[in-house]
Amino acid sequence: MKPLFRSSLAALLLLLYPWASHALEIPRKEVFTYRISWNRLIGIAKASIVMKRDKDVLTIEMKAKTVNPVDTFFSVRDYFFSSTTPEITSFLKYEKRLKEGHYRRHDEIIYNPSTGKLVYYKNGKLKKDKVIPPPLYDPCSILYAYRFRCPEKEAGCILPSTDGRRVEKIQVVFLAEEEVKVPAGTFKTIKVEPRWKRMNGVFRKKKGGHVYVWFTEDQRHIPVKVEVDIFLGKVVGELTGYEIKP
After folding, report:
1. Could you give the dihedral angle defined by the CA atoms of residues 14, 72, 122 and 147, in that order, rounded to the nearest 10 degrees?
2. Cα–Cα distance measured from residue 172 to residue 61, given in angstroms and rounded to the nearest whole number
3. Eight-state DSSP code of residue 76
4. Which of 146, 144, 139, 145 is nearest to 161 (CA)?
5. pLDDT of 65-109, one tens digit each?
6. Which of these, 135, 139, 193, 239, could form a disulfide with 224 (CB 3.0-4.6 Å)?
């Protein structure tokens, strides 16, 4: 069970140019909750994403927690945090805390867009110190960068992102328009695929596998469904509820 959870639960907490000047207005607060299942058959966890924005910073918190009976023999408590500029033009800090069975990991990345300096710590130890020009996103903020900074969803976009170890230009490709039914309701959506080669972070899939994300096709672009292809099948996150404050 350990490889299943390490390659799936963290993956679902969860996404995924030049920028146009007419980017969509970002709400003051959003709260999304999700049911996570294996092949849409067995519920294995619940997750949440909370975004808050003020004049100085935007923050994103993602959490995942296993549910019974899974939690009784393999407990997962994963936490992701990101802070960005208020308009999501670049990230400022990324933090990942994984508690999966006996496995523990703590990653922290601090980025200064004005100087391009990036510092990466793993379990409290300095691992990287380098300069990378902005814009740059982390595995959490890339979801919001696509929603609010990519003006033409059908055309897709390229988002420079880092997990601390590597920097990669992630291509987000439009696939289709689909009607999707999840516990929160039925939505008209656009289906996209974030594509990358080596970077790890929130989205972790098997080699050669896929990650699909369904966003509502209206201006809110709510992420209503995520599907990650892992070695034992598909892990799916489905929206169970949401609250948005303009």
Report:
1. 0
2. 22
3. B
4. 139
5. 999 999 999 999 999 999 999 999 999 999 999 999 999 999 999
6. 239
